[in-house]
Amino acid sequence: MEFPSADAQILRSMQALEQHATIRSYDNGAVIFSVGELGDCMFGVLEGEVRLDWAEGHVAESLGPGRVFGEGALVQSTHTRHGTATAVAATRLLVLNRETFLFALQTLPVFAVELLASLEARMEDLRRQMDR
How many domains, in total, are found in the chain? Predict the structure, then answer.
């Protein structure tokens, strides 16, 4: 039996909270956020693709449907973005702000575990990419 990925599980939880969240659409090439900006929300990719550029463009991630990013903004009230996120196709994102995040933790306690699993999976992907 195949289990859903950590990101798929967290996106499913985010979609359950969709009535409390916002959906934003971005055209190909649109910058979602830039390095150094204050962050106040995380994102789940519903459609399209997002490229995250880290370390002045030396490391990049490509995130498609079912992937999440920007989680740091939910746990730090003065979070500064560490990378730049750009839509590389027409993209729809589910946006979860801190208030909705706290609501999610109260109504879906497993959401915190899903978020940690998602972060760990992305860190492992980045470690592999940097080892190449």
Answer: 1
